[in-house]
Amino acid sequence: MSDENLFDQEDYLQARVDECIWQKSTDAGISRQRFLKILATMVGATAVAGLAKPAPAHSQTAIKTKGSKILKPLPPGYISHSKGTLEMNWEAMYGRGYLVPNDWFYVHNRHTPPPFDPITWRLKIHGTGVSAPCEFTYDEIVAMPSISVTCAIECAANGRRFFEEAYNTPLSGAKWRLGAIGVAEWTGVPLGMLLERAGLKATAKDVLVEGADVDSLDSKETNKSKFSSVVPISKALADNSLVVYAMNGEPLPPDHGQPCRVLFPGWGGNANVKWIERIEVSETPIYTQWVTEQMVLVGADYPAIAPYKGKLITYQNVKSAFELAWPATLSARTHLLRGRSWSGKGKITRVEVSLDGGKTWQFARLREPNFPFAWVRWDIEWNPIPGEYFLQARATDNLGNTQPSTVPWNDSGLLYGGIVSHPVTVRG
Q1: How far apart are CA 309 and CA 75, in angstroms?
Q2: The CATH number of 3-312 is which of 3.40.50.800, 3.40.50.10490, 3.90.420.10, 1.10.443.10?
Q3: How many CA atoms lie within 13 A of 231 on its CB side?
Q4: pLDDT tens track for 341-361
Q5: CATH architecture, range 319-427
Q6: Moybdenum cofactor oxidoreductase dimerisation domain location, by residue (predicted)?
């Protein structure tokens, strides 16, 4: 059997597993007994059964920052940029399954995960946009009809380092390359169902979701508040907008929002609030500093429209990444280059790869599954001679959005979606 057929067989089997995961859903949630049992025995998080765990990347060393806000162990080869960040290692993902196991999923914590007591925790829903304000217990949410959605969560600052390199200007915040993303199967209750139980009014306009984590809104750390995000009622009522309590078939790990978080597929990670405690529904627009000052693009190309400091961030853009070390060193032989591309606005329909720094392009082979608001895996054969190379990938989604060569500057380094040159050295 040829190497190509081996790759085909591996991907075919994995695709069947992924399709099974995608199709399954529960009619009555996951039982209280099962959840509490796992919560009591869980240390960190476990990968979903049947999914291959990424192999350690021995060329890199994992170092957790002193005073880390991350509870789970640092996977080998992963990068911790600050006390609350953990970047996925693309080299370790080479040839692995569609989903990212829980313990390998990227982390951006503004605060150490708060303690969770399933007996006392409550989710409050209130505001002028509902007629019957109420609270839900953890048991009540888990017992409700649930659905499972496979999609990505991606930090809006993913790719920030490339802004610095392109404009030779330093930025504050985590120096993410492209590893502030992950795809998982998220299980929970449709947010719209909870809002209906709270007596959702036809006049409702905005929905604010607040978490338990407290962070500062300024560099002096004098203006602190609980982190929150705001979405329009249309997004809150979307079929795939959830109050999530499970990730890859297990209770949400502490670093990923235990006991519950919201899921708004396609929107930046900051909208998918973790450790949620309160949901406010309003008949008038809601403006908070977290949204008007932090979730915006500020720069010459993004004029401010009061009360926003710049252009509001909602959907993520198109990106691509090679499953290679950065920088990578390969031997002079035939390689099957692999990567993943994704879009916050739909599904990827085409991926082009350049092996010569953008001079020429060829189509990569797309691998199933390929879900909207998630990613598609792709590959292409390469038989290089010794030398220095810059590999590039350019993806296009079903709405025609394509990665550009350049991206306008913004002061926070958010939503970088340009073509990235991946340095590779080939040795004889």
Answers
A1: 37
A2: 3.90.420.10
A3: 27
A4: 999 999 999 999 999 999 999
A5: Sandwich (2.60)
A6: 333-415
